[in-house]
């Protein structure tokens, strides 16, 4: 009698998602050229279970670890680099749910995630807001809890059922605390705009969210200090997966374009580009970057998974060490990939002639997308942080913010420079 070993969850998920990724990749260039938001593709991914892969089986998910999950995100980014970033806020919220103790609050959110509901992100604010002081406010009056404010860089929210927002909660004595609040995107008073004007990752829905006295569930308002500790490393891991997917797409497109090329140069080394040693040398460098990018994602994911494994032992030395490791490994990978992946996207054009710059091919999207992703969480600061850890053993910061420093007068800067404050 023979027995058959059932497939592991990651294999099952990969097989189920494979045809979805093929369809996504087939339309990626056209969506880019038409600026067509991938609403149908987001829905198809949710229906195929992407949003619940990290949930335990007993809560309606498939129990993938972060290494398995990150590998799937790389494949998704190779098909369309916008899509893993669309899911970035959702991925973080799922980790927050996994960090919650057993109870009705966790069970309610697990049911929503398992049912295919999507959570976006709304943490950032632009303008003259002072660092560390959210302008978005949560208030409770007459038994009604509401949130009001204006957010930008709200990646994924335009596609989502909910958005994970940061705000200040005002107390009756005039004090306040930073909180996170889950906001229903389709509730009265909520407006989401597709006004992200970056030159890359244009379909991520990274635009403006306006909240005008939007009612929220008080149970969905929590102190920011209650967030899972490895969240910054996890957010960076998703961006690393996007970079690795772009590198994989560059390798794929390089091979396809070079194989199809029949024109060659009289001072080249072969009648066909696919046999030209210099062209193959460039293709080899691109392939090596793609391989290294995926390997770095896997290594970083292992470190983040280790932090997830210790999350229910806060305050222990094991948890502290695991979180330091996760932050450093994701930063190290970021330092390398922010340089190498845009380079691969540039090298692609060295394997082709001027026809490679045709807008119809849209090969420039790889560089634009990689450079845009590399602009998140400025790498120059990560280099310093890694260096300080390497030389001095200094722990990295786990939470940071961006805004106007309290000592800066934005109006004075604008008057002096004659421009808008960014």
Automatic annotation (TrEMBL):
Pfam families reported in the protein's UniProt record:
Acyl-CoA_dh_2 (PF08028), Acyl-CoA_dh_N (PF02771)
**Acyl-CoA dehydrogenase/oxidase N-terminal domain residues:** 22-117
Presence of the UniProt keyword Cell division in the record: no
Per the database record, which ranges form the Acyl-CoA dehydrogenase C-terminal domain?
241-377
What's the protein name? Acyl-CoA dehydrogenase type 2 domain
Q: Which GO terms describe its biological process?
A: L-leucine catabolic process
Q: Which InterPro entries did the record assign? A: Acyl-CoA_DH_C (IPR013107), Acyl-CoA_Oxase/DH_mid-dom_sf (IPR046373), AcylCo_DH-like_C (IPR036250), AcylCoA_DH/ox_N (IPR013786), AcylCoA_DH/ox_N_sf (IPR037069), AcylCoA_DH/oxidase_NM_dom_sf (IPR009100)
**Gene Ontology molecular function terms on file:** 3-methylbutanoyl-CoA dehydrogenase activity; flavin adenine dinucleotide binding
Entry keyword set: Oxidoreductase
